[in-house]
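Title: Comparing notes on inverse folding

I've been comparing how different people in this forum approach sequence design from structure. To keep things fair, I'm posting one structure and asking everyone to reply with a full sequence. Here's the target:
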């Protein structure tokens, strides 16, 4: 799939006057949430990725919008002292105690990051202070070598449930690029063995790169987001962890369910799956709906008003189906690619 998609994306990037897409850029694009709207590899998806890729490359550095900017609320956080957590589904009391034990296992990583950034045992006062703090660190780092994406916390967003009236607090975040400072060789050697970075190599990495890798490791092991992991590592905060984690899979079109404790009963796993499946409802775009919807729309427009320009057709389509295409060009190309052959 990636080879076909890369060829299509590179064709669009060439039209935009941009160089070919790098493997890490394509991998990042496929991991974004909007990717789930496209269950098939086609020219429409390639055009969207190319437009995003150009935006990422032209975006300013740390402290402002960055390549791959994606602002969205992540899961809830609470201070170390406890506090109220608003859950979509209730979880047993023992899980809250288990969360404390899970985070205790990552205390050494937290001490390492606090020492690396010269912070005291309490860390930064609040997650909202992270963006400015990391911007100051980025100002002294070079934009060289491998780059990673860091999900930087922006602070809390307060939302009220219109039905229950309860207030939920979410951690908003934004993706920003960070650089290692040098190019690390592939993690697999010529014989297929895993190559683990040495302590000396780790010490060479710039601070934000080390933070990104550590936060991602914490995220992978606990189920929290990378932004929440950073709030744990640098602030006096402790994220609530998913009891049962349910995520949509862009590759399979289904769901991935992760259970990190054998004590969680099967009925709870099934209950969480049903809840999130019903909450998500029908996928916003069924396979191939987008391209053939364009064909249907354009054919109707040609019959009703054949003299209208493509720009006007695109504007009309956007009013009825907002956010599906990034430009008139990709909209027009989709029509010509999918229209019936006579």
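Reply #1:
Here's my take.
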């Amino acid at each position: 799939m990636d080879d076909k998609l890369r060829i299509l994306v590179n064709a669009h990037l060439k039209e935009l006057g941009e160089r070919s897409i790098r493997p890490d850029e394509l991998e990042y694009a496929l991991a974004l949430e909007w990717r789930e709207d496209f269950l098939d590899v086609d020219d429409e998806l390639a055009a969207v990725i190319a437009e995003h890729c150009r935006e990422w490359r032209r975006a300013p550095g740390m402290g402002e919008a960055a390549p791959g900017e994606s602002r969205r609320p992540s899961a809830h956080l609470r201070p170390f002292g406890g506090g109220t957590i608003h859950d979509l589904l209730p979880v047993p009391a023992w899980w809250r105690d288990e969360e404390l034990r899970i985070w205790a296992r990552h205390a050494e990583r937290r001490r390492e990051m606090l020492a690396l950034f010269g912070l005291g045992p309490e860390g930064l006062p609040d997650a909202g202070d992270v963006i400015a703090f990391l911007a100051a660190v980025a100002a002294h780092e070079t934009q060289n070598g491998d780059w990673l994406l860091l999900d930087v916390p922006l602070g809390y967003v307060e939302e009220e449930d219109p039905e229950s009236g309860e207030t939920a607090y979410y951690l908003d975040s934004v993706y920003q690029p960070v650089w290692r400072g040098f190019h690390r060789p592939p993690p697999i050697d010529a014989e297929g063995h895993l190559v683990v970075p040495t302590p000396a190599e780790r010490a060479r990495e710039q601070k934000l790169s080390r933070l990104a890798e550590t936060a991602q490791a914490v995220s992978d092991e606990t189920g929290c987001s990378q932004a929440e992991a950073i709030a744990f590592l640098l602030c006096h905060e402790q994220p609530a962890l998913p009891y049962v984690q349910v995520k949509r899979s862009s590759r399979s079109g289904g769901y991935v369910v992760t259970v990190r404790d054998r004590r969680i009963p099967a009925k709870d796993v099934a209950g969480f799956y049903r809840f999130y499946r019903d909450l998500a409802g029908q996928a916003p775009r069924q396979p191939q709906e987008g391209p053939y919807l364009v064909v249907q729309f354009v054919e109707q427009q040609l019959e009703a008003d054949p003299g209208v320009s493509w720009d006007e057709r695109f504007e009309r389509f956007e009013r009825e189906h907002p956010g599906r295409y990034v430009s008139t060009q990709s909209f027009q190309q989709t029509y010509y690619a999918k229209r019936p052959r006579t």
